[in-house]
Amino acid sequence: MAPANPTVDRAQQDDWPGRQLGLPASGPRSIARLGRRIAGIAIDWAIAVLISLAFFHYNGGATLAVFAIEQVLFISLLSGSVGHLILGMRVVPLAGGWVGVWRPAVRTVLLCLVIPAVIYDKDQRGLHDKLAGTVLVRR
C-alpha cells in the first residue's frame, strides 16, 4: 500500500537532526541522540556521587559542584565529559575550533539548572547548547 502523501514521507526521510547545521545524518559528527545523552549524564552524575560519598559524606551541594567542575574541566580539556567520552560523544563549537572555557562554563551552569537542557529544538540541541554555541556530536 502506497503512503497517502509520498512528498511528505520523502521530506521526512531527507530531514534529520543536525541537517540545518550542516551535520551528517549518521556517523562521526552527527548529532548525538537522546539515549547516549542520558547514559552520558548518568555516568557523569554517578562519578560525582562517588566523589561526594568519598570526600563529603554525600552532600547534595557538593555532588552538584563536583558534577559542574567535572563538566567544565573535561569539556574544556578533552571536548567531552567522562560520560561523553566513554559513549563516543564530544562537545564542539558551531563556529569550529577549540571549545574554550567559557562555552563549557555557560553550558554547565544551564545544564545544572536542568530546564534549559530539556528544552530542545528539532536539531536535538538543548537550550544550554544553543546559548553556549555548542553541539554534542558523535566522535
Automatic annotation (TrEMBL):
Query: Transmembrane ranges?
Result: 38-58, 64-87, 99-120
Write out the ranges of the annotated region (Disordered). Answer: 1-23
Question: What span is annotated as the signal peptide, if there is one?
Answer: none
Which key words are in the record? Membrane, Transmembrane, Transmembrane helix
GO cellular component term, pick one = plasma membrane
The reply on keyword Transmembrane is yes
UniProt cross-references to InterPro entries, sorted A to Z: Pra-immunoreactive, UCP021697
Question: Its domain of life?
Answer: Bacteria
- What this protein is called in its record is RDD family protein
Species this chain originates from: Lacisediminihabitans changchengi
